[in-house]
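Input.
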Amino acid sequence: MKKFALALVLSLCLSPVAAEAKGSSACYTPKEFEAEQGLRIHSELMVIGLTCMKMPQGPQMYMKYQSFTQKNKGLISSYENDLIGYYRRSGSGDPEVKLHTLRTNLANQISQHAIAMSTSTFCKRFSPRIDQALSMDKPKIRQWAQHSWQTSTTTTPVCAN
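Output.
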């Protein structure tokens, strides 16, 4: 009987911790939010570079996108690792597949936006972002990624403090 009572007390004491841990996987930490927004920025730059390839400055824009990627490969990799960690914690099937699906969905969302505009209008409006991003250092990129945009919400909400 004492073992049963001890087990009952322990389970009651630990259940709020387990519920809190489980509940926390339903939302992003600020770091995970930044990671998704950072990958959104990277995806947007890729779509700009690819969409604008046939414009007069297009090939240069794609090379600048590649330079941005090379310059920030450590940051991009850490963003990917942060989201893989989130997917593991939340019990998602295959975290790497989930990450690739997210990246594909982000690129598709941005591509749909580009399709809704003419290529020249899209490129004129968004191509400056490649130079802007390329000129930023890591802290500035992180600050950009920490920003919340109403038109580009993350796939998972940020946890309430």
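Residues 28-145 form one domain.
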